[in-house]
Structures are given as C-alpha cells and as structure tokens.
Amino acid sequence: MKRIRKGDEVVVIAGRDKGRRGVVLRVLPDDRVVVENVNVVKRHQRPNPARGVPGGIVDMEAPIHVSNVMLWNPATQKGDRVGFRVLADGRKVRYFKSNNEVVDA
Q1: Domain count of the chain?
Q2: Rounded distance, CA 96 to CA 11, Å?
C-alpha cells in the first residue's frame, strides 16, 4: 500500500513549486507522481494527423518524486505525514499522524 495515491490532494514541500497544492493524476512505478498544475514544463510536440494531435510547444506536467510531496490535511490546513493502521474489521487504512484522523473512509 502506498502513502500517496491517485486522486489524493497533496502539497509540494520542496523544489521550484514549493507550497503549491494539486491533485495526483498518476502514480508511476519508480516512486514518482504527476500532480496537476505542478512542475509544468514545455515540450516540443510533433504533429500526428492520425491521432488528431496538433504540433507545437505544449505545456505538460512532469513527474515529481514522492518524497517532495505531502498529503494535504483539510483539518489542519497543512501537509501531513501519513501512517498505516489496521482497523478492528481487518482493513488496512492510512491516517494522519498529527490528529490520528483516518484518510480512507
């Protein structure tokens, strides 16, 4: 089980986009995540008429390492560390370390 998952709201804690928040779009297998509107780079794209893709310079989100993001805690309005806990019914869930609130409802 991963600490950061697709659909989580995270805050960037290091790098050029420090302090920015966004939703995780993809989790890559090499411990990297793609966050919307974070780490935006310009790429030169060749046109592909078969797919209907126009050419030119496009903005896209580049992956950022998972160690540079923290899960956003809406209760404290800050990034928070995440731990794991097994509930009484046997489910393994994530929880915020600051207030012991369960992330996965």
Answers
A1: 1
A2: 14
3-state secondary structure of 1: coil
Q: Which domain holds residue 35?
A: 9-46+54-76
Q: Is residue 65 part of a domain?
A: yes
Say if CB 84 and CB 92 are below 8 A apart.
yes
The confidence score (pLDDT) of residue 105 equals: 63
Please compute, for residue 78, the number of CA atoms within 13 A of its CA located in the half-sphere on the CB side.
8
Asked, for residue 1, whether it belongs to a domain, the answer is no
pLDDT digits (tens, 9 = 90+) for 66-93: 999 999 999 999 999 999 999 999 999 9
**Tokens read off for 96:** 């915020």
15: left (phi over 0), alpha (psi -120 to 50) or beta: left
90 falls within a domain = no
Q: Which residues pair with 41 in a beta bridge?
A: 60
pTM of the model: 0.87
